[in-house]
Amino acid sequence: MPPLVRNLIVALFASLFMAIPVSAQEASTTETAPAEAAPLETLVEVLKDDAARQTLIEELEAQIGNTAGPVEAAPPPAPSLGGRLADMTKQTAEVAADSAARFWRQLTGLPGTLGAIGSGDFDALGRQLLDLVLLALITYATFLVLRLVGERLRRLLLAKARFGTAVVRVLAALFITLGNLVLVALAWAIGHIVALTFFGTPGFIAFHHSAFLNAFLLVEGSQALIRALLSPRRAELRGLPLSDADAYELTRRARVLVSVLVFGQLLLVPIANRSLSADAGTMVSVAVLTVMLALLVNLVLNYRERVTARLVAFTHARAGSGMSFLAQFWHLPVLAYLIGLFVVVVVQPTTEVLPILGNTAKLVAAIVAGFMVSHLLGRLIMGGVRVPPRVAERVPLLETRLNAFVPKALGALRLLVFIMVFAFVLDQLGLFDLGGWLESELGARVATSTLTVAAILLAAFVAWLTLNSWVDYRFHPDSGPPLKARERTLLVLMRNAATIAIVVMAAMFTLSEVGINIAPLLASAGVIGLAVGFGAQKLVQDIITGIFIQLEGAMDVGDVVTIAGVTGSVERLTIRSAALRDGNGAYHVIPFSAVTTVSNLLRGYSVAMCDIAVAHAADLAAVKAAMADAFAWVKASPAGEGVIGEFDWVGVEAITETGVTVRAQIKALPGKQWPAKRAFLAKVMSVFEERGIPLAGPQRIAVFAPADPPAAALRHQPVPE
Description:
By secondary structure, the chain is of the alpha+beta class. The protein has 23 helices and eight strands. It is found in: Cell membrane.
């Protein structure tokens, strides 16, 4: 049976049957019967005589040789349930009766013990108390001066925390607490210097001075931690969901409890033990513990209704349910526990009481820490995650993604904290061996798997968040040169592929860590992939061809291209197809599997072929000069802003029955060749008209019959249509 439960059972039995008052430490002596010297003297005489000693050795060896082997005794029968219950009840009753008898002997012998204390002992005790009062005044005055010196820094941190985020508030509370602990340590060190220098012999410190300074360090250090937890004056730094009035009241009561316990056990009890007697020290210890338990009972009764209301609101318990019953009558088991502790204090020695109080303090600390962490996580969940404005502007979806993941992760952490606190409480009560379970194979496996899975999921989320944030940043106009459509398509493709890879790898690692064999899953995935590959060959071909076309940069959105026999402007590019708008306004969606050649009309530079048909009788030199003049005019005009080359006369391109076709080339920037060509042709037409250069056209031959045929002459004249 665990010591805590056994001691409480003993205490309850004693309190029910024996009406025990305050105890003191037993001061009894044990009488020992005188040992008989005759057998020892005989043995010594035998050992001194060589012959007798040899005879004794031979007899012993003969006796060993004649002794038969050990006979295994039959195992005792297993006790029944009733037998075990009877043994436990018998042991408990005997321990309670023994404790009651011992206490009665101590109580009846206490007057004689106190009477043996002389007046000189009380005089020495008074002088020690006077020294203690003086050292306490100096130490606490030094502590107050140090707090006044650090007040400016504390106010600065409070101002930062008032308008800061949750993380800033936590950091401010942490720095304030560390500063208070440093001030306590400085005051403790100065107190030691004062005690070593001005009290008693220089260089030596009295026992009661050292005891007081240690108690001061523990009391004020505990008070600094309590103020950090409850923060009675700053609600924004408070770790528990309490009002200002409740926080102030609990801080005051906690200080009283800690002061009574620490100064009583670490100062008054050692002084009483050393200056008076052990019985007096025991009496002081019992009195201190009794006062502390009475203060705790008063605290429970005063806060019964307020704690009930908060428990009902926290658990959302309905009227008549089990949780509602526990929330309304929570004080009953707590009061029973405190009464049991009081009985243990009275019955058991101090060495048995302090471990129980230590376990109780651990329980309270674990529950308070669990509530504090739960409250902090709840505030973080409700407050959400805020990123700096500049980061939010460049990566607009970062805050949304964080708020989609972080609250769920904090909720899982909150549940884990609750489970850990519950398991620790059961372990301290002796109902569950937490350390043994963690050391077992199952416990180690569960703990390791939980931490590993959490690390895998966290790493996967960080990788996914980093990848998406970088892609969003690259899409932002202020991140650098504007991205082309091809680069945007490749970035989206990379993000989607990397996301799938991260999800699959995280799932595989997680399943493997929890003990699931992923080999069949991988084999099934391979079979499914093979089947999908055979059934969607065209789709796979589209995607693979599209990837290489995008990587090679064959076309971008806005380019004029010819693919699969269609010429038009590219309006949309995906990983599987390209969408074109031709000159007639028709919209074409062409899968990349149908693309064998990409003809891009807007890469590097463009050339406009200008073919002009002139009459057979036109002077080609005059035609070339007119076209050169027209080109010069166009290049100087707004239409020729994209022209990058000089006039390029190619020459005669064709001769037909209607005329002669001459060609010139205009080299321009991509997309600028068409407006330059239109302006050039229009100007050539006007220059030809001004210079009388005839254009090509159909010709007809008319034959006129004269009145005098022999004298008539034939005339050939082209007739324009």
